[in-house]
Design goal:
By secondary structure, the protein is mainly β. It folds into 2 domains: 181 residues, Immunoglobulin-like (Sandwich); 182 residues, Immunoglobulin-like (Sandwich), CATH 2.60.40.290. It has 2 helices and 28 strands. Strands 1, 2, 3, 4, 5, 6, 7, 8, 9, 10 and 13 form an 11-stranded antiparallel sheet that branches. A 6-stranded mixed sheet has the order 15-14-18-19-26-22, with no helix packed on it. Strands 23-24-21-27-28 form a 5-stranded antiparallel sheet, with no helix packed on it. Strand 18 and strand 19 form a beta hairpin. It comes from Iris pallida. This is COBRA-like protein.
């Protein structure tokens, strides 16, 4: 007798198909959210260099390199974690400290810095005594981008590991690396053994190398960060009285009445209280792009960044802006630093001791600058149909909510 397909079989197949479809959709969604079109190769790389062997383990230097264009790690800094492969422990650290010691009751005399199976390490503050430092340590966990501040785009510490392999063949790589930072989520891959790092002596006359090196790559993912934007964009121009303001509820809607001097106190998806000025968009940061003038061979744009957050200063802030005229056509930036990047993208950031610190909401909670563009090619230059406005705007690596295209200021007269 042939096989019969019963209603139960059909139901099972249907349930399986729904499960498979949901899995594929969720997988593709995560991958899509993790891809950043303005920084497709951006990542944070953790390099683990074993510098010497000890009787029960090794001494290593761990360095966190920030290879992201726009996203830096701000105070209170990074936290690096992992899971040991077996029963390893941390005897001591230099240039960082472990967050928890764990249960070290079986030890007498020399007590390890951490006996936890899954330790976490944080950076030391800037005023740490010199005897407790190593190179590139002790900045409070703050790591700049390589474009803004190359000298401070890495953070290092040293640790002595015990109960581990004592040769290249016996040492086991840690697993399940995690990297957390304020306002950012990172997904870290598995550790991979790479060619040992080579070091040049200060006088440049001697070359040494690590005994063993492995790398871990971590990528920022909006899927892990938040469900709503943290910034929005307003657009205006000299040829139209219309202002295309930030979209309504771009960063969430307030449901509680404003408190004097505090704004709208709510909680974000992580459960942390926030307090921003009560605005229709409810975004902590707004970027205003204003086309100021079109004259001769040049046209000028004003850029204003406003902080609506009562509880936070933004240090080393930056903007990533995509616009076709950024392709080597910026004559000069006034009041801002500028770097031209591929794909019609420009990076803007504040000037130290001038507007490099975007202060919390209030009288000084904004930064301003102007951009002077040149080379108005008649075949491409136009003020019609929103050409003069950015395609995308990022603030500190986060994509900002843009106004709808039909709300853009329009040029109604002939050029």
């Amino acid at each position: 007798m042939g096989s019969l397909i019963t209603s139960r079989h059909i139901a099972d197949l249907t349930h399986f198909s729904i499960f498979l479809l949901a899995f594929l959709l969720s997988s593709s969604f995560t991958a899509t959210e993790a891809y950043d079109p303005l920084d497709p190769n951006g990542n944070i790389t953790i390099k683990w260099d074993i510098m010497s062997w000890t009787p029960d383990g090794y001494v290593a230097v761990v360095t966190i390199f920030n290879y992201q264009r726009f996203r830096h790690i701000e105070a209170p800094g990074w936290t690096l974690g992992w899971t040991w492969a077996k029963e390893e422990l941390i005897w001591a650290t230099v240039g960082a400290r472990t967050k928890e010691q764990g249960d070290c009751s079986r030890f007498k005399g020399n007590i390890p810095a951490s006996c936890k199976k899954d330790p976490q390490v944080v950076d030391l503050p800037r005023k740490t005594p010199y005897s407790m430092q190593v190179a590139n340590c002790c900045r409070g966990g703050v790591i700049s981008t390589g474009i803004q501040d190359p000298a401070n785009s890495a953070s290092s510490f040293q640790l002595s590991v015990g109960r581990s392999g004592t040769t290249k063949k016996t040492v086991l790589l840690p697993k399940h690396f995690t990297l957390t930072a304020p306002g950012a989520g990172y997904a870290c891959g598995a550790a991979k053994v790479v060619r040992p790092t080579r070091f040049i002596s200060p006088d440049g006359r001697r070359m040494t190398q690590a005994l063993m090196t492995w790398n871990v790559t971590c990528t920022s993912t909006q899927f892990l960060v938040r469900k709503t934007p943290t910034c929005c964009v307003a657009l205006s121009a000299f040829y139209d009285e219309t202002v295309a303001d930030c979209p309504l509820c771009a960063c969430g809607c307030h449901t509680r009445p404003a408190q004097p001097g505090r704004g709208c106190a709510e909680k974000d998806e992580s459960g942390f209280a926030r307090s921003v000025q009560c605005t229709p968009h409810m975004c902590p940061v707004r970027v205003h792009w204003h086309v100021k003038r079109d004259i001769g061979k040049y046209w000028r744009v004003g850029v204003t960044v406003t902080n609506f957050n009562y509880q936070k200063n933004y240090s080393e802030w930056n903007l990533g802006i995509q616009h076709p005229n950024f392709n080597n056509n910026l004559a000069r930036a006034f009041g801002l630093n500028y770097k031209s990047l591929p794909d019609d993208t420009g990076m803007l950031w504040g000037i130290k001791r001038y507007n490099g610190l975007l202060r919390e909401a209030g009288r000084f909670g904004h930064a301003q600058g102007e951009l002077l563009f040149r080379k108005k090619d008649p075949s491409t230059f136009t003020l019609h149909k929103g050409w003069a406005f950015p395609r995308r705007v990022y603030f500190n690596g986060d994509s900002c909510a843009m106004p709808p295209p039909d709300a853009y200021p329009q040029l109604t007269t002939s050029e």
